[in-house]
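Structure tokens please, single chain.
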Amino acid sequence: MTDLVSILDGNTFLVSDRRGDIEPSFDFPTGLFSFDTRFLSTWLLTLNGERLHALSIDDAESYRTRFFLAPGEPTHYLDAKVSVIRSRAIGGSFHEELTVLNHSGDTVEFTLRLDIGADFADVFEIKHARQKKGRTTASVNGNELRLTYRREAFHREVAITTSEPGEIDVAGMTFRIRIGRHGEWTTRLHVATVVYGARGEDIRATLPFAGSRDVATIMAEQNELIERAPKLGCDCEPLATAYRCSLNDLAALRYESIALGVRLLAAGLPWFMTLFGRDSIFTSLQVLPFLPELIPPTLQILAGLQGYRLDDFRDEEPGKILHELRYGETAGFEEQPHSPYYGSADTTPLFVILVDEYERWTGDSQLVLMLESAVRGALKWIDTYGDLLGTGYIWYQTRNQETGLPNQCWKDSLDSISYADGRLPGFPRATCELQGYAYDAKIRGARLARTFWNDPEYADRLEREAAELKQRFNHDFWIPDREYYALALDADGRQVDALASNIGHLLWSGIVDETRAGRIVEHLLGPRLFSGWGVRTLGDDQGRYNPIGYHVGTVWPFDNSIIAWGLWRYGYREEAGRICDAMLSASHYFDGRLPEAFAGYERSLTEYPVRYPTACSPQAWSTGTPLLLLRVMLGLEPQGEHLIIDPYVPEGMGRIELLDIPGRWGRVDALGRSRTPTDARRPNP
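Here you go.
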């Protein structure tokens, strides 16, 4: 994605090359997308039949970009007598202003051509090219070109209009223009996307949607959100830059869902611009101390779409929290199960964790009472459908063997769960972090039951079950001769013995026996897992290790933020600080925007973190990472009606001051300064 330029507003986004052009692609989602459909697959500008090249690009803001262009090859720029400024913005619909500037002393005639096309590809069709089953038509009416796609009730349209008269045909627009000496010519193009039709049997959108907000409205909405966040003052420039970038991207990733009528966070550009249960929950946990008002819509939607039946196609089960919700053609016609799809085993316990953490920060007991049934249903799922083998653990195995996800933990690629020698276990599988989430969910569920639901008997039962789970887990998953927890158990109860970053999530959950925490910390910060830029997803001596493998050796910022939180929980403040420092150092090389993942090469081999070629950016839980790292470094923890502030700032980072931290206590300030390594706290779980 390094040679591509994107702008976005919620889940409407545009990806082009560095000239601003879009050409049809089934390798990477270039084009104009909204609600999982590509509305523009061709948007190609020529001047006198010649392609343009970029002189400069102004892409400082997420929702608008300007391209400064000239015709010919770069070696000819000095002789260019004409240039083009391409200014674009996105706000539900897409706007582009084309300005041609004549730099000569004579009147000149030009032919400006914009080739336009729409393949209406579903986002899943970008990854796996398919023959379209519907029919696309094009029509011209005055200054408008309208492209329409229909397949039964599924109906998508894109309408392109121009402010200046031109020759419009079904494949684009041609402008024959005459510009005086040192003069200029401008046209404004408006692209409206229109959505009709059903998205599946459970959720329907029967009204047309044609979102359009002007740039001023977008700017005002984003600025309003950013202004509500705490104010950061610090001596560490990478932290300051990452914080600003995170707030900007969080504002940009919000979208209004069709028919559901609330603003939600999309998971990541370009592949995941929709609601993801796991991503939404983790991002909510990261941003909770900063923008708690973003959390209730996510919780309410996840509760509203909670599974209520057995549906093998969608991997749906009673009480289960969804994995992914899609709006495109393949979901609408059940060629993919994402309407919604429930193929994740971790979202359900994580949902309970988020409900509790939200109340602890905000004191919003009304939402806890409103969600009681959903939380009880989620806790019941853990012990019933989640426990496929009746062993007291969460297992997963897709019910949909054709289009379901095989791996239903956060590392959901095909080869992510393996033995140390690289072999893949069969199904079902019980990954270690799932058990930690279940333990934490039971502890937190007990607090909710005792404090808000007036059900002490249920609370006692949950606490008893959590204690039993912790004891059983520490026996079954611990590998004595290697002194770390197995990545998973296979269907026969054997340990899947790879060394992976998942063990850091165990610290966050609290399921790790206190006597073993030190060894886990040593592994996480040891040379096999810690690259110097962060904790790798898989140890570098493991059979499937690949520094540029999606879940088998790359470094994921979100993963590292949860690990840092876990280190903090067990009192390993200096070690947590090392991860915070590594992540913020890496963010500097990504201009403050941490990507989905980057390569796991040893830091001594590279002067900068190496990009993962197809990483999403921005991605919500990477965007939330600097915020959670701030919480860890400042030692922020709600306790009753108060916020505990116990900072440990890594050496060399200087002063960190966070003002107006919101919560049930009102708004408070936190201040921390770098300490020397001898000041590090030791375990006090």
